[in-house]
Amino acid sequence: MSDRDERSPHRRPLVTLVGKYSDDRVELARELIDDGCAVLLCAGPPGCSLMRGEPCALLESTDATVLLPTDTHEQKVLGGLSLCAQNAPGCIVMEPSTVGIRGGAVHVRFAEMDRVASFVSSVLHHPSSRRNAESAG
């Protein structure tokens, strides 16, 4: 049984924000905390453990991951963000973004961080979310 399974289903949802420092990242973190979430901040690649073929402790413990908007075209960074999106539970990619992952990632385009926070919270509390499925099982 993993640590995730042993946690209380009543704990605060944990959201990881991936992206370089910005006022939007700070505002989104505050909004999520105000909505009752705990927040982890990750600068993302190139220092990402996924890029070294290792697991990411943040992704293993988080309920949802938000990839913040990026305009980079640096292949190393885009490759790391793509790995993050592929391995992240409940991945939400904020547009505009040069991260081309589709698949299981949800792409959203909101200018206001309170709307992003509200969307993330609704995803976390939806009955189909991994967090709710684990606590029910």
Description:
The chain is an alpha/beta fold. The chain has one domain (10-136): Response regulator (Rossmann fold). The protein contains 6 helices and 5 strands, in the order αβαβαβαββαα. Strands 2-1-3-4-5 form a 5-stranded parallel beta sheet, with helices on both faces. Helix 2 (23-34) packs across helix 5. The two termini are 13 Å apart.
Please render the helix and strand layout as text.
Blueprint: H1 3-6, E1 14-18, H2 23-34, E2 38-42, H3 57-61, E3 64-67, H4 75-87, E4 91-94, E5 106-108, H5 113-125, H6 130-136
Parallel strand pairs: 1-2, 1-3, 3-4, 4-5
Helix pairs in contact: 2-5
Features of the shown structure:
globular, single chain, about 140 residues, alpha/beta, 5-stranded parallel beta sheet, Rossmann fold
SSE-based structural type = alpha/beta
Report the mean per-residue pLDDT as an integer: 79
What is the distance, rounded to the nearest whole angstrom, between the alpha carbons of the first and last residues? 13 Å
Question: Strand order across the biggest sheet?
Answer: 2-1-3-4-5
Q: How many strands, which pairing sense, and closed or not: the largest β-sheet? A: 5 strands, parallel
Could you give the order of the helices and strands?
Answer: HEHEHEHEEHH
Per the CATH scheme, the topology name is Rossmann fold
What percentage of residues falls in helices of 4 or more residues? 25-40%
- Unreliable sequence segments: 1-7
What is the gyration radius calculated from CA atoms? 14 Å
Tally of extended strands? Answer: 5
- State the CATH class: Alpha Beta
